[in-house]
Structure formats: C-alpha cells, structure tokens
Specification:
Helix content is 36%, strand content 18%. It is built from three helices and three strands, in the order βααββα. Strands 1-2-3 form a three-stranded antiparallel β-sheet. Strand 2 and strand 3 form a beta hairpin.
C-alpha cells in the first residue's frame, strides 16, 4: 500500500473543490457542537489545507483521498513508506 500526501497547490482549483466537497459530504466528519452549513465547512477545510494545518492524502490501493489534520497520529503511522508526491496534477 502506498500513501501519498498530495500538495494542494498541485491540484487545479476545480479538482481541489471536488475533493473538499466529497470530504465534507461524508457523514461523521463534523465533530463540532453546532452543525455548520456546507459552505462554511468548505471554507474551513480549504483554509486548513492552504495553511498546512491539514493535508490531502491519496491511497493508491483504494484509489481514495482523505483529509487529515497535519498532526494526526494516523499520519505518523504511515511513515513506514514514501508518502510525499510532488508530481500529481488533476
């Protein structure tokens, strides 16, 4: 299994929008006390990705993307193999 962190600046604006929209549409991704509207969630996730406090991850095996906070312990477990990809453009 190969996991790659995809730099968000390597994605087109449309591709990034699609990834974020798909992520926020999943159930269970909102852990706040109050439910935020989709546009607010979108802006929050995009801001975290752009600032580097969240990262976009692609899994070759499942061909899926996910978004993690940069300090998420799950990312530390993935250090067993190459994760960074700088040549991905959608």
């Amino acid at each position: 299994m190969a996991i790659h962190i995809i730099p968000v600046n390597k994605l087109s604006a449309k591709a990034l929008q699609g990834v974020i929209e798909e992520f926020i549409s999943r159930s269970g991704t909102d852990y706040g006390a109050m439910e935020a509207d989709p546009e607010t969630k979108f802006r929050q996730v995009r801001a975290k990705l752009k600032s580097g406090s969240a990262v976009l991850v692609f899994d070759d095996e499942t061909e899926t993307t996910n978004i993690f906070l940069s300090d998420d312990p799950v990312l530390k477990k993935l250090d067993a193999g190459p994760r960074q990809s700088n040549n991905k453009k959608s």
